[in-house]
Design brief:
Belongs to the purine-cytosine permease (2.A.39) family. By secondary structure, this protein is mainly alpha-helical. The protein has 22 helices and no strands. α3 (about 55-65) crosses α12 (about 245-275), α4 crosses α11 (about 215-230) and α8 crosses α14 (about 290-300). The protein is globular.
Length: about 475
């Protein structure tokens, strides 16, 4: 069957019909008709992002400032605050498109990248989401193992964490929203208790060497990579909302859902990492970059209750995993268009089957993986964000009505995608010299530090405008 000819949802099997009665969502990338966009609980999007980031991965990202980039606590926290204030705006803005268009983020991207061109960012997005899932599984597995004093291996811990996330993502929109609304509560309580029992060690951090601009910009690039990658899945969770909702309301719910947990936990992670060397129990737990062991050591003064709290922290990554598995299941249908007829939940199973073995293999190289991964992913995500935003503001006149939702699956009527893919690829001619990675430092980055994220966003946008204008002129329509 030619997937481009599919314009209506396929008939649902008896098994799918039964799952629907149990609350499982089968809809994949099919746009949500306006009559089905009835959800008025707009605060859901706040809790999705809040729960997804109230976890030990956010904590871990903050530790990179002092541990990897040699920054003092003050400089680390300032970078975390100001760059997150800037970068959280990008995915938050894109969430506002879901209620207006009823489409998933990568389907909206087809209106810039085209039916086939969008496969390029889709592949990159799948790599990013699988990478985040691997990091979360490793952290969760480490933390569970630390509670058991080694009696539970990291491998078993990883499988347990992934299984919980699979269950929620399999069920889909309704269950996922319910889970994210409550999942953050025990995690936040646990972090507050950890701060209460270990806070005395965070006072008067040791003096640090003066920060260099290169170190600040390189850490900032890592911080940017943590949050801007949500841009490629932002509207996946808002396309059931009523279309008349204020865009400002959705934006602010999303913005603070990102900003509050990320800034708070990253700063806490930085403070604990700075203090770890002066607290023997913390230093012992942190051996080998074991963030789970560090958190377990922080909670040791509460004895047996501390182990229970550490288990809760290990489960905190499930909030991020469930949302990520959900979006992975959607992106597979865009990567391979004929699979649009397969129920969404099938791909949650496939995602889990991929992520678990990769997590087990990479479990003992967590910090190397985290630094390399977060440092790389911000480049393409910032270019993607610039392109889809300029398409919306300049070529669609910031008007949802300029998107013909009937052609979402028609390659002949969608843009060719040459302008978007061309701008995205061409900008890397300057991005590469501005990169600073463990395995490569560009000639510009040697002087400035890593400014690839900023260059990717700016240059891809500057290239896209003339490229797309030429495409529109030649085709005669957007």
């Amino acid at each position: 069957m030619d997937s481009a000819s599919i314009t209506t949802e396929p008939h649902k099997s008896r098994w799918t019909q039964r799952l629907l009665t149990w609350g499982v969502e089968s809809r994949g990338v099919w746009p949500v008709p306006i009559e089905e966009r009835t959800d008025t609980q707009f605060s859901k999007i706040f809790f999705i992002w809040f729960s997804a980031n109230t976890n030990i991965l956010s904590f871990s990202a903050g530790t990179l400032g002092p541990v990897i980039f040699g920054l003092g606590l003050r400089d680390t926290c300032l970078v975390i605050l100001f760059f997150n204030m800037l970068c959280c705006a990008l995915p938050s803005y894109l969430t506002t498109w879901g209620p207006k268009l009823g489409m998933r983020q990568m389907i909206i991207a087809r209106y810039a990248f085209g039916y086939y061109g969008v496969i390029v960012p889709c592949i990159l997005n799948l790599i990013v989401m699988c990478g985040f899932s691997v990091l979360n599984c490793i952290l969760g597995g480490q933390t569970l193992s630390s509670v058991s004093n080694g009696n539970l291996s990291w491998t078993v811990g990883i499988v347990i964490i992934a299984a919980i996330a699979l269950l929620v993502s399999f069920c889909g929109y309704k269950v996922l929203n319910w889970y994210e609304r409550v999942a953050w509560i025990p995690v936040l309580v646990t972090f507050v208790i950890a701060l209460g029992v270990g806070g005395k060690h965070l006072i008067n951090p040791p003096p640090a060497e003066p920060a260099t601009p290169a170190a600040i910009l390189s850490f900032a690039s890592t911080i940017a990579g943590f949050v801007v990658t949500y841009s490629s899945l932002s509207s996946d969770f808002t396309n059931y909302f009523r279309p008349e909702v204020s865009s400002w309301k959705i934006f602010l719910y999303s913005y603070f859902g990102f900003l509050l947990p990320i800034v708070t936990l990253q700063c806490l992670g930085a403070a604990v990492a700075v203090a770890a060397s002066s607290v023997p129990a913390w230093e012992k737990g942190y051996v080998g970059g074991n963030v789970g062991g560090l958190l377990e050591a922080m909670l040791q003064p509460t004895k047996g209750f501390g182990k229970f709290l550490t288990v809760l922290l290990s489960l905190s990554v499930a909030g991020n995993l469930t949302a990520t598995f959900y979006s992975i299941s959607l992106n597979v249908q865009i990567l391979i268009p004929p699979l649009v007829v397969v129920p969404r939940y099938v791909f949650s199973l496939i995602a889990t089957a991929i992520v678990v073995p990769v997590s087990i293999v990479g479990a003992h190289r967590f910090y190397d993986t985290l630094v390399n991964f977060l440092g790389l992913i911000g480049y393409w995500a910032s270019a993607f964000g610039a392109i889809v935003i300029l398409e919306h503001i300049i070529f669609r006149k910031n008007d949802p009505g300029a998107y013909d939702t009937r052609i979402w699956n028609d390659p002949r009527r969608l843009p060719s995608g040459i302008a978007a893919v061309g701008a995205g690829i061409a900008c890397f001619g300057l991005v590469v010299p501005c990169m600073e990675q463990v395995w490569f430092v560009g000639p510009i980055a040697k002087t400035t530090g890593d400014i690839g994220f900023e260059v990717a966003f700016t240059l891809s946008g500057l290239l896209y405008i003339p490229f797309r204008a030429l495409e529109v002129k030649l085709r005669g329509s957007v």
